[in-house]
Every structure is written in C-alpha cells, then in structure tokens.
Write a structure and sequence with these properties.
Length: about 450
C-alpha cells in the first residue's frame, strides 16, 4: 500500500514497523460543541484507510482521542453554568451518534485526556529532566529551541509565518507552548495545581497506549502546525525518537470556496447534513473526492450522492435474498489496487459504477443465473466492508424521508390491504393501494410479502 507522507512530502510504500500490525493514532475532537463537517471528513478518510488496510490483511490498532479539558470547554462551562463532565459527556455522546450515522467504525481505544493525567504529568517530568522546559508565572513551557528538528514536520521556514496567538509575552520564543497551565481549580501535580496543555495529551496517550513509535499519526491538515509539530518535538526531546513513522493529513472543507470556520460563520455541523440526506449519502459524498484535496461542500452535490447510491441499491434490490459467494477476482483486485494507491477513491468509485452497469446488463440477459447473482452479491458485500456503504436493507433505503409515525401509518395500510386480499375483497385492496400512492408510497408484491418504497418525484 502506498500512502502520501506529509512529512516526507511524497508517496511511500507503507511497511509496518511490526510484522503484520499497523498502529494508527488520529487526533479526535475537542468536545465542547457539535461535530462539524471537518470532523466528518477526517473521520471518514481514516476510517477508509483502516478498512482498506484490514481488507489487505493487516492487523490494525486504531486509536482516536477525545480532548475533554481545554480553554473552549472552560469557556462553555462559564457560559452554560454546567460542569466539565456534563459538557464533555453530552458532546462525546453526540459525536458517537454522528459517527454511527456516518458508519465510521469505533476506534479500538478512545482515550479521554482527563483519564490520562498521570501519563501527561510523567511526560512533562521527563521533558523537565531532559532540560526542555521552563517555568513562567502562569505555567510550565516547552522550550522549542531544545529540539533540533523543530519545524521539520510542517516544513515551515520563515518564523514570521507562525501566527502570533494570544499567549504569554515572557516566553523565550513565540514558538514555545504551554505544557501545564497553572490553575487552582484543577488537578494536583508536582508543578502545582493546574491542567494539561493540548499538545502534550496526545503524545502522553500514544506513549501510554502504544509504548513505541507508531506507524501512522493522522488528522486534519489544520493540525499539522502547530499541533503535530509540537507533538513530534516533545517525543524527540523526551525519548530521543520519532513519535510516528508516517504522518497523514486530510484536506479542509470549504463552503463556497472559503475555508469552513466558526469565525467565518460558515461552519456546517454534521447534524445539518444529516437533516438533508441519509448518513450513508453524507459519507459517500465526503468520501467521493480524494482525502487530501480540499472539499467544497455543496448541498446539491450531497443530494446527487444519494442518487448515485440509489443506483447501487437498485441493483442490491434486484438481488434481494440472494446468498453471496466469496468475493474474489478481478473486481475485488481492481478496487484494492485503486485504494492501495493512497486511497484513490475516484478510480474505485468508477470501477464500482462499471461493475453495477455490467451486473445489470448481465442480469437482464440471465435473470435466473444463480452463480452470477451470488458473485454480484459478493461484490456488493465487498464494497460494504471496504467502503462502509451499502450496509442498509435495500427496501428500507428507499423509505428514507418518512418519519416513524408516517411509517407506522403505512404499515397499517399495508396490513389492511393484505387482509382485504386474503378476504378476496380486491376492490378494497385496490382502494388502499390508491391511498398509499397518494401518500407517495409505491407497493411491490414479492414472494416475501408486500414491500414498499417512497415514490421519488423529480
Ligand atoms: Zn493530537
């Protein structure tokens, strides 16, 4: 498998550090608000990476954290009068439910910073021992001049490029960052009461969970500097080794060609997209352009993604009830070849379109060919596992757009129609069918009983 390594600025052949095992750490969300489309893009990109590696036969250990102590969370406590736990528990639950809607697999471990305070404190002590820290009146700071390779990850050269964030003016260098912020309201430590800085939590958790250099450290492109640069620097100064062998970053989400951000007021939440289209369509849409490219979010494009999925689901419906054979051969290889090239999704999706068209043509010719049907079903199952789409019931997929109350009403009408047919009252059965049609529901009689779907009007 080839991946693009951000640090090396080139595609490399991924060779696991330990036999067949790939260890991946992705920086997760700070839980003070609902997750936005940038979080979705990052989660889906590295969920795809994980699924492809598994399909290629690797054992993958996948860790994604929750930052559950941070200035933004403290600000939210002030503005809402809630405790830290109330806020972080609520937004962690919200995040998990968004990820479920997008069919992103749960990480093997989902560490929270506040559960790793001892590891974080130990890490800072180690940095202190190695002479890479200094103390100011408001906290313990990391001395970036102690890391010879500082800025080698992001490749920043001109120090003036480093954005001046509101920070302590007594710092030795503008690049230095806080490891432990003094604050009487928080946790005990050998340095005094306080709370950890963001950049230390990930390195401390990686050190605790993996205990060694990991294969891939990943996250959004906005994390490359300063967050990942600072993480890498701490690991070199604490343990004289690299934090990760490879670094991967996904592109920004743009709305109307402007970078999505809260300050621009164009920050789209995942929940907003989920109100427009099924989670699976949102996933397909965000996955449909290369993970490193900047993504221009557009609602019309989101809705056409639903239609592209409809086409594959129609094929799945033609095969309803068919047992899959084992996925193998040309189709599977063509998808894995495409995705092994730094997740070349455009080629993979084009191969899927081709397969769907060919399958429909072949089924038209040989509608009773069982082996053909089992092979196509196997291909669809392979797509399901590797791309994380097509996992829904093929009939329910076409029922999207009705709420639970409406669905119940429809089910009751179908039941009444079945009873009328059983009593040979075909006139009544037809009247009920007309009523269902007027509600926007199409009925299909199948060997497994009546099935229904929403009638789509263009
Ligand atoms: Zn991180």
């Amino acid at each position: 498998m080839q991946i693009y390594d951000t640090a090396l600025k080139q595609k490399i052949e991924l060779k696991p550090l330990n036999s067949n095992e790939i260890n991946i750490y992705v920086c997760g969300p700070t839980v003070y608000d609902d997750a936005h489309l940038g979080h979705a893009k990052s989660s889906i990109s590295f969920d795809l990476l994980r699924r492809v590696l598994i399909a290629l036969g690797y054992r993958v250990k996948f860790v994604k954290n929750f930052t559950d102590i941070d200035d933004k969370i403290l600000a939210k406590m002030q503005s809402t009068n809630q405790t830290l736990e109330q806020i972080t528990t609520y937004y962690i639950d919200r995040y998990i439910s968004d990820m479920k809607a997008l069919n992103v697999l749960n990480a093997d471990i989902e560490p929270k910073a506040t559960c790793y305070l001892n590891s974080i404190i130990d890490y800072i002590l180690k940095l202190e021992q190695n002479g890479a820290t200094y103390k100011l009146e408001d906290g313990i700071y990391f001395d970036t001049s102690k890391d010879e390779k500082y800025l080698s990850l992001s490749g920043r050269k001109d120090e003036n490029l480093i954005a001046r964030v509101k920070s302590n003016n007594s710092k030795r260098s503008e690049k230095d960052f806080v490891l432990w912020k003094f604050d009487e309201n928080w946790y005990d430590s050998p340095f005094g009461k306080g709370r950890p800085g963001w950049h230390t939590e990930c390195v401390a958790m990686i050190s605790n969970i993996f205990g060694k250099t990991i294969d891939i450290h990943a996250g959004g492109a906005d994390l490359l500097f300063p967050h990942h640069e600072n993480e890498a620097a701490q690991c070199r100064c604490a343990y004289h080794k690299e934090l990760a062998k490879h670094w991967m970053h996904n592109g920004f989400i743009q709305v109307d060609n402007e970078k999505m951000s809260k300050s621009l007021g164009n920050s789209f939440f995942i929940k907003d997209a989920l109100a427009i289209a099924p989670g699976e369509a949102v996933r397909y849409y965000l996955m449909s352009s290369h993970y490193r490219a900047n993504f221009n979010y557009d609602i019309a494009d989101l809705l056409s993604s639903k239609k592209r999925l409809d086409k594959i689901y129609r094929l799945k419906k033609r095969l309803s009830g068919v047992e899959a054979s084992e996925a193998k051969g040309e189709f599977k290889n063509s998808i894995l070849d495409a995705l092994s090239d730094d997740l070349n999704i455009s080629v993979a999706l084009a191969k899927i379109d081709e397969m769907v068209n060919q399958a429909n043509t072949n089924l038209d010719k040989e509608p009773k060919n069982k082996a053909l049907k089992s092979t196509i079903m196997a291909n669809l199952n392979f797509i399901k596992d590797t791309l994380g789409i097509l996992y829904q019931d093929e009939f329910e997929w076409f029922q999207y757009g009705f709420d639970e109350t409406q669905k119940e009403k429809i089910m009751n009408l179908i039941k009444a129609r079945d009873e009328a047919k059983l009593a040979k009252d075909y006139k009544k059965a037809d009247l009920i069918r007309d009523e269902l049609n007027s509600l926007g529901v199409a009925i299909m009689d199948t060997p497994n009983g009546a099935k229904w779907e929403k009638i789509w009007t263009e």
